[in-house]
Amino acid sequence: EDQVTQSPEALRLQEGESSSLNCSYTVSGLRGLFWYRQDPGKGPEFLFTLYSAGEEKEKERLKATLTKKESFLHITAPKPEDSATYLCAVGDQGGSEKLVFGKGTKLTVNP
Amino acid sequence: ETGVTQTPRHLVMGMTNKKSLKCEQHLGHNAMYWYKQSAKKPLELMFVYSLEERVENNSVPSRFSPECPNSSHLFLHLHTLQPEDSALYLCASSQDSGLSGTQYFGPGTRLLVL
Q1: Strands (E), B1-114
Q2: What percent of chain A has pLDDT over 90?
Q3: By C-alpha distance, which of B42, B36, B10, B2 is closest to B109?
Q4: CB B69 within 8 A of CB B51
Q5: What is the pLDDT of residue B52?
Q6: Which of helix, strand or coil describes residue B97?
Q7: Chain A contact present for B107, CB below 8 A
Q8: CA atoms lying within 13 Å on the CB side of residue A104
Q9: How confident is the model at residue B85 (pLDDT cuts 50, 70, 90)?
Q10: In Å, how far is B43's CA from the nearest CA of chain A?
Q11: Could you tell me which of A13, A26, A41 has the C-alpha nearest to residue A90?
Q12: CA-CA distance, B81 to A11, in Å (whole number)?
């Protein structure tokens, strides 16, 4: 059974304090790993798609990396507006082709 | 309008009511999805439509009934719901029938069942 585990559940940072969020996954064959940002009361906003181990993508203060077992979302010098819940999802080549989501990491960046 | 839109944004209904949620995508995509998001739980896939044909039904109770009249519109008809059905209902779309491709979400409908 496909599994996606995100850690930590919640993370508090001071503005400018860099850190990383983790997404560990178990699939029979990775079709893609997706990162989303979700603000309270809103739908998830697409950030990145990663397809193969070693791949990296960047957007402003965010950088996503991928290995065969996990993905990291690195946040460099975060700002209060980066506060949100970050969701990870995987697509499995051998599964029902649906995305499996983790529970998310709630990030709070204090000024 | 751009992206994926959902109406209404908020809905309060009694257990005997019938209501419908509407989703419209302006991205030219071929696949559309309904998800349920409850507190402290991962997003739960409810239904998937590809080219207007239902391809996935994740053991959802019959009190939820989807309808996809064309590739741009998706409805979720609700009747005799239970309080535990209160949640954020999200609609999403993706480019093609590769259902694990990048999905783009609407803002959601916050549903409260009394």
Answers
A1: 4-7, 10-13, 18-25, 31-37, 44-50, 53-57, 64-70, 73-79, 87-94, 103-105, 109-113
A2: 80
A3: B10
A4: no
A5: 78
A6: coil
A7: yes
A8: 21
A9: very high
A10: 6
A11: A26
A12: 35
The mean pLDDT value for B99-114 works out to 88
pLDDT at B50: 85
Q: Is the dihedral of CA A76, A77, A82, A85 positive or negative?
A: positive
Query: Is the bond preceding residue A44 a cis peptide, omega within 30 degrees?
Result: no
Tens-place pLDDT, residues A35-51: 999 999 899 999 999 99
In which residue are the tokens 């690195």 written?
A: A74
Within 56-85 of B, beta carbons closer than 8 Å to A belong to 56
SS3 at position B28: coil
Q: Letter for the amino acid at B55?
A: V
Residues of B in contact with A102 (CB under 8 A): 42
Q: Where are the alpha helices (DSSP H) in chain A?
A: none
**Residue of chain A whose Cα is closest to the Cα of B41:** A103
Give tens-digit pLDDT for A87-106. 999 987 765 667 889 999 99
**Residue A46: count of CB within 10 angstroms of its CB:** 15
**Which tokens is A106 given?**
């709630």
Structure tokens at A45: 């906003």
